[in-house]
Amino acid sequence: MINKTVANAQEAVADVFSDAVLMFGGFGLSGIPENSIKALLEMDLSGLTCISNNAGVDDFGIGLMLQKKMVKKMISSYVGENAEFERQLLSGELEVELIPQGTLAERVRAGGAGIPAFFTPAGVGTEVAEGKEIREFEGKLYLLERWLKADFAFVKAWKGDTSGNLIFKGTARNFNPMMAAAGKITIAEVEELVPAGELDPNSIHTPGIYVQRIFQGVDYEKRIEQRTVSKK
Asked: Which InterPro entries does the record match to this protein (predicted)?
């Protein structure tokens, strides 16, 4: 079995370059690769294209990369929690491609599956359809969407082994598995790293074939975007 472990986040991200296309797993602030993002913030990077369901918040996650002006373009579905994102978008500093959430998920999945394009009804008749091919199938209009791939995909799992097999927990399973398959180089950080062969093969969500580097993360904050409590 190939041992894909690296010592830490800094070693894992050392060859990330300016103008690269990056994918970040997670849903909201759940399951985001916190350690990898912190390591990227220590580097002198610019012109990045970031593909993520959302853009973090002002002081956490991808929001910190936006503050540092590392990001040239965001490809996302939901960005409503980030005031700095809004400011850069309205000022013209940041290029943004907003995509329906299901379409974003399928474009990433298609990238991992080697499917260059597909037709979907989502977005027909809206700004999403501008400049895209539209065809009719069985009396209904569909627009052509293209795959999404990345130079580097960053994912965060609950548990992984030294061969790169991953298990996600809860909401973190939303975008992480499909992004792991769509990166030329996929970097996984895990809460618990175990020797190869210790994970139940029937419980693995991402096979190690998709992962090039893995490390055990530290000091996870696991922020909550909007904390609410029930009223008596």
From this structure: 3-oxoacid_CoA-transf_A, CoA_trans_fam_I, NagB/RpiA_transferase-like
Helix (H/G/I), strand (E/B), else coil: 91: helix
Question: Which of 5, 1, 41 minimizes the C-alpha distance to 193?
Answer: 5
Judge contact between 45 and 66, C-beta under 8 A.
no
* Six token digits for residue 76: 């996302």
Structure tokens at 78: 């939901």
Topology, domain 9-124+131-216: Glutaconate Coenzyme A-transferase (3.40.1080)
Q: Which of 89-93, 112-116, 166-170 has the lowest mean pLDDT?
A: 89-93
Map out the domains of the chain as residue ranges.
9-124+131-216
CB 46 within 8 A of CB 69: yes
Can you tell me the distance from the alpha carbon of 127 to that of 178, in angstroms, rounded to the nearest whole number?
A: 26
Kindly tell me if the per-residue pLDDT of 81 is higher than 90: no
